[in-house]
Each structure stands twice: as C-alpha cells, then as structure tokens.
Design goal:
binds pyridoxal-5'-phosphate, 420 residues, eight-stranded parallel barrel, nine-stranded mixed β-sheet, alpha/beta, 29% helix
C-alpha cells in the first residue's frame, strides 16, 4: 500500500523479500512450505483506505470474507470495527468465532437455506441481500415463524458489463445473481407488503477485479433511478450497498483508485440521505498475502524449462481456473544464469501450473514467492492428490502468529473408513 512505509508491508529490501519485519526466507525455513503468509499492516491499511475515502458519508465496510476467511485475518478486521459480507452459515460462525459483531453482517448469496436464515436472524445480522422473489418469500416465512422482522435489501442486477473474466463478472442479465431490473419494482412492492420483512436498502455487486470506476458509475446511475422511483411510491431506502470488486495490481494493472471510486459514489448519491455499504474482498486481502513454495526440481523437456515446486493447483487454483497471472519471484536475489521457466506443481493434471514463461534465476532448494496470494488462495485450496493444505501465518511487525497449522495427512482421511 502506498500509505505504508517499506518496513510495514510486503516488499523487497536488500535483495530479498520481507513480510513486515520478518524475511520470507526465514519464514520458509522455520515453518516449511507451502506457506501462506499475511501482513497485518497491509490488511489494516487496505481496510482503512475505504474508511478514509468514504469520510463523513455514513458507511459500513463489510469485508467479503470469502476472499480469506481465516480467523486470524477476521480478528484483525473485527478489531477495527469492520462489518462482514457472508455467503453461508459457516461464514457466520467464523465471524462469531473471530470476535466479529453480527450486527455488522450482511448476508449475500443466491442459495440461502431456511436453516441459514434462521441462524442469521437469531444472531441479529444487519441485513439480508435478497437475490430472488422465492428467497424473499422463504425469508418472510422463516422470520414470521420466529416472531421477528427480517431486514432486507434487494440485490439488483443492473446489467452492466464489468469487462472482466466471464467467471468473475456478475452484473450481466444472463447470470444467476440478483434480481433483474424489469422485476425489481414488483419485488420491492411485495417486500414492503410483508409484515415480517423490513425493507432497508438496495444492493448490487457487478463483478470482480475492476480497475476502472466506469462500471460502478453505470451501475449506480441505474440504482439511484430505482431508489427515486421507490421513494415516489413511499418505499424509502436507508442504505445503498455498492458491492465489492475493487481491483488490485497482479501484473501491470493500475489498482482501483479508492478515492476516485468514493467520489463516483458520492456524486451518484448526491444529497440523498443514505448510508453506503461496501463489500471489498480481494482489495483488502489480496496484496496482503504471499504463498511461499520451494523449488523441488528443475528439468528441461524439449528445450522448455520447468521448475517443479511444492505448491500446486490445489494450493492456488487461480492460474488453472481463470488463467490468472500472479507475480512469481525468488525469495532471495541470486547471481545465477536465468531461464524462462514454467512453474508447475506435483499434481497429476496438465492444468497444474502457477505461472508460465517466467524469467527466474533459480536452483533446486530455492524458495519462491507467489505474490498477491492473500485472497482466493487458501480459501479455494483443496486436498486433491491427498495433499495437506499449507500453514497460514499472520505477521505483525516482527511477530509471527500461526493462524492455521499445516494439515496432517491423517486428518485428511479421519472421517473415512475402509469396509469392516
Ligand atoms: C465475491 C463477492 C464480493 C467480493 O468481491 P471482491 O472482488 O473480492 O471484492 C462482494 N460481494 C459479493 C456479493 C460477492 O459475491
């Protein structure tokens, strides 16, 4: 983060990579690899950039915890007074376990079960982001059964093209998320008529890894029109939830300018007396993490150089799943001849790569760092090939906290049994 000094983030100094006050080399040597390492200061600074940008406008920053739901990471944000955007009952339990405040939770997702609704109502969450008419009816039923009123906003699909990868674009008419504009008024009228529903706001989330403010501008224009139409019918909304999707730098992109983004929001809302909710995930956690891995073998096949490392697609699936590109660098600068390497893992799939054609000066036994692995990395990891998931470390200055231990192999089949 630009607001951080070199010593408080993840940065290279004196020819090697540092996570705050601890060298990545010593982390890899002490805790082994693969290891996910997070910087507390970077998480805090990214969160703070939203708080600062929104300034005097009433706001709540709800961290989209699906990006990284480790209890250590959540506890850092909970202590700052963050809200949380959850997408399951499991995530609700994590917030509580990490010391987060349930009254600052918004609940997103297209498939909320009745049990999840009941638990969220019992916990007293801030708002349900309702994504369909059927969900609204189910929620009304569950709330009425409990004798409570459910706070809702409707997730509207404004049909704007966020211009990102098709798998991470969510605001187009043809995808499964949200309620289409043509149905929005009717669903709001229905919500307003239900005794066990209180209409609080409006919500949208148009995609992920957006590096321009234009898609936000387009979506907000549409939402604000709807807000005014609703007000003219006597349905007054108290908040507007603008979703997440704020983009970061993986390669040479410009990260989204949060100040400019806040200006767009303030301009669109104008004098309307509304609180702003925002649901950033990647922007808060992504740059604050690295995945450390060890070079096991170097090999050459038909003139192509491969670095076979001890992390694989099961540990970081973004390259295989979205053709995503993440920086890969030597943990310590080396004076060696360099080659263009495909950095691959040990998993038995051709899609098992972490990066292709990377210029690296490496030898077997060296450590590599995959940057910007704080978001959508560990949380998407699997045990494919019976590979235990790596340790998660949270660095705070010179202190290292093990926020999740490396899995043991036995734990992977603990719930299984051979036939008697
Ligand atoms: C995934 C998601 C987010 C966070 O997206 P990022 O791109 O990580 O900021 C926010 N809101 C909803 C509803 C989501 O599904």
């Amino acid at each position: 983060m630009s607001t951080l000094g070199n010593e408080s983030g993840i940065a290279r100094r004196n020819g090697q990579l540092w996570v705050e006050g601890v060298s990545a080399q010593s982390l890899a040597q002490t805790w082994g690899t693969p290891a996910y390492v997070y910087s507390r200061a970077m998480i805090e600074a990214a969160y703070q950039s939203f708080v600062d940008a929104l300034g005097s406008r009433p706001h709540l920053v709800c961290y989209a915890m699906k990006a990284n739901s480790n209890l250590g990471v959540l506890s850092v944000l909970a202590r700052l007074g963050a809200g949380f955007d959850i997408v399951s009952g499991g995530e609700l339990q994590r917030v509580v376990a990490a010391g987060g405040d349930p009254s600052r939770i918004v609940f997103s997702g297209v498939g909320k079960t009745a049990v999840e609704m009941r638990d969220a109502l019992a916990a007293g969450i801030r708002c349900f982001n309702v994504e369909s008419p059927s969900e609204l009816e189910r929620l009304a039923h569950v709330a009425s059964h409990m004798g409570v009123v459910a706070p809702v906003s409707l997730r509207i699909n404004p049909d704007v093209d966020a211009g990102t990868h098709p798998y991470i674009s969510t605001g187009l008419r043809e995808n499964k998320f949200g309620i289409g504009m043509q149905d929005a008024l009717d669903v709001y009228r229905r919500a307003a008529a239900l005794d066990s529903i209180a209409v609080h706001g409006i919500d949208c989330h148009i995609g992920s890894q957006l590096t321009s403010v234009e898609p936000y501008k387009d979506a907000l224009r549409i939402l604000v029109d709807l807000i005014d139409t609703l007000a003219s019918e006597g349905i007054e909304l108290a908040h507007i939830d603008v979703g997440g999707g704020q983009g970061i730098r993986y390669d040479d992109e410009q990260p989204l300018d949060i100040g400019a983004w806040a200006d767009v929001i303030n301009e669109a809302i104008g004098e309307r007396d509304m609180e702003v909710l925002v649901e950033p995930g990647r922007f808060i956690a992504g740059p604050a993490g690295v995945l450390l891995t060890r070079v096991e073998y170097l090999k050459e096949n038909e003139g192509r150089h491969f670095a076979i490392v001890d992390a694989a697609m099961n540990d970081l699936i973004r390259p295989a799943l979205y053709s995503a590109w993440q920086r890969i660098e030597s943990v310590v600068d080396q004076q060696r001849p360099s080659h263009e390497y495909d950095v691959v893992g040990p998993v038995c799939e051709s899609a098992d790569f972490l990066g292709k054609a990377r210029e690296l000066a490496i030898a077997e036994g060296d450590f590599l760092a995959i940057r910007d692995a704080g978001a959508y990395a560990f949380v998407m990891a699997s045990n494919y090939n019976t590979r235990p998931r790596g340790v998660e470390l949270l660095v705070d200055g010179k202190d290292v906290h093990v926020v999740r231990e490396r899995e043991s192999v036995e734990s992977l089949f603990e719930l299984e049994s051979p036939l008697p």
